[in-house]
Amino acid sequence: MEIERKFLVDPGRLPFHPEDYPHRKIEQAYLCTSPVVRIRRDGDEYYLTYKSKGLMVREEYNLPLTGEAYCHLRKKADGRIIEKIRYVIPLEDSLALELDIFEGDLAPLVLGEIEFPDEESARNYDAPEWLGEDVTYSSLYHNSTLSQIPEK
At 43, which CATH number? Predict the structure, then answer.
């Protein structure tokens, strides 16, 4: 189960420099958006992911792929292939912000996601103002939706 809140971040309002934190390059593509079936290259690791419908709470299953299987499936992507740099910034209460800085024609989009251990924690989280607009309940900012927006 994935329980997360998502925020539209203005990098100019961040009280830190993302480059000071660990990061990795992520490439992901969608084989289907309803239900969500995604493939992802995360550094040297490859996954096939299924996500159920939902906004703040969704089922999520990750299965490992080989690099060869990833390359084969990548050719079957529906829509754009999303590229982003993910920075992981520790927050209070053992939480972490996954700050995604999108590349290519989705730039300069920046989204922040925080995963929670349970729904109550997610609902009660008092986000700092610098995180920006809470877009948790907008499917417009799901990566699966972004993959379907016509490229510029």
Answer: 2.40.320.10
